[in-house]
Structures are given as structure tokens and as C-alpha cells.
Amino acid sequence: MKQRRDALRTRRQAERWKRKFERHRELHRQIRAAAGDILESNNFMSTKGHIQHGDMTVNQHCVNVAKLSIAISEKLHIRCQREEMIRGALLHDYFLYDWHVGDAKKPHNLHGFYHPGIALNNASRDYDLTPRERDIIEKHMWPLTLTKIPRCREAWIVTTADKWCSLLETIHYVHGHGKVEGVEADQKTEFMEAKKASTEKKTRAAK
Question: What proportion of the chain, given as a percentage, has pLDDT over 90?
Fold first, then answer.
């Protein structure tokens, strides 16, 4: 009798894990369909070398926020621009530095207040952002950034998802795999080249 109960419990657990795996696979499929160019870009890949909270990298944190944003919109039946929401979620922390490692020039003590602006500038340089995507990136730290109130439902969803993911990562309820060593150094040259190209483009436009 006990063996039958154990077998039934094992089968139910296997079915739950299968459903969970299939759900995660579907979320990843949606994210890749909407933002494959972001996922495969060198700058976004470089965020695997930066820790966000606990042992979670910025890269995985942004993917988690995108996944939870999709789940929230579906669970609550919120009509939204799915692709823009996903892209904004992936780029909301596109500040491209490790905020845990500061120096005398940039101690990052006020990272929570100023990183949305930096992320927006970087994302605007690398992508043609829609107004919704800009709103998501710039407003996701509300209410910490008190005057930057989200103006679209996509931004509200991502802001909520970001808060929840950050809490679970900070208290180590959700674990990451730690940063990938060497990624940041490998991408530094491309980042500087992109920054130089952006400056040259602005200079030409000003003439």
C-alpha cells in the first residue's frame, strides 16, 4: 500500500515538473520571438558578468522579470503590447556596469536613483525604442524615483515584476549561478566602439 502511495506521489511530482518545464520553455519562446536581437547582442550578454541581487546576474534578472511580466499579464488578463513589454523588461537594467564595484569617481552609492536614466541612454543608443519601452525603462524604479510615475500598463506590469523578482533574489529564495568571469572584459572593446560611434553620429548631426 505504501509503495503504491509513493509511486502515485512520484508520478504527480513528475507531472508537476513537466508542466513547469513546458511553461518555462513557452515563456522563453515568447521572449526569444519578441527580442532575439537583444538576447544575442554582445552588450546584453555582457550583463552575465554583473551581479544584480544575491548571486543572480543582471542578465538572468532581466529575463526573469520578462517572464514574470508575461505571467502577470496572462494571469490577470491584462491587454497589453506584449512585444514592447518584453523588450522593455529585458532592457530595464541596461546600465552595463557592476553596481557592486565602485571607485572614487563612481561609487554607485545612489545606483537605485540614477541607473534608470543610464539604462535608457544605453538602450536608446543601441535600439530604436518605442514610447512604451522608454516608459518601462525610465520608470521601473518607482516609487524610489518619486517623480517618474509609469504612464502605461506595460510599465506598471514590469515595475511590479521587477519588485517581486528583486525581493526573491535578495532574500535568496531564488538562486542564480553567479557571474560569468571574463564576459565583461571580452565585451569592453565593443562597448567603447559603440560609444565612440554614437558620439561621432551626434557630432555629424550637429554640423
Answer: 51
pLDDT of 185 strictly over 50: no
Give the CA distances from residue 17 to residues 21, 22, 82, in Å, rounded to whole numbers and listed in that order. 6, 9, 26
Average pLDDT over residues 123-133: 96
- The whole-angstrom separation of Cα 108 and Cα 152 is 29
Here the CATH number for the domain that contains residue 61 is: 1.10.3210
Q: Within 10 Å of residue 121's Cβ, how many Cβ atoms?
A: 14
User: What's the domain range around 7?
Assistant: 2-206
Give tens-digit pLDDT for 77-124: 999 999 999 999 999 999 988 877 765 556 566 787 889 999 999 999
For 12, counting Cβ atoms within 10 Å of its Cβ (0-12 exposed, 13-18 middle, 19+ buried), the class is exposed
Q: How far is the CA of 164 from the CAs of 61, 73, 137, 147, 206, in angstroms?
A: 11, 14, 16, 21, 43
Number of domains in the chain: 1
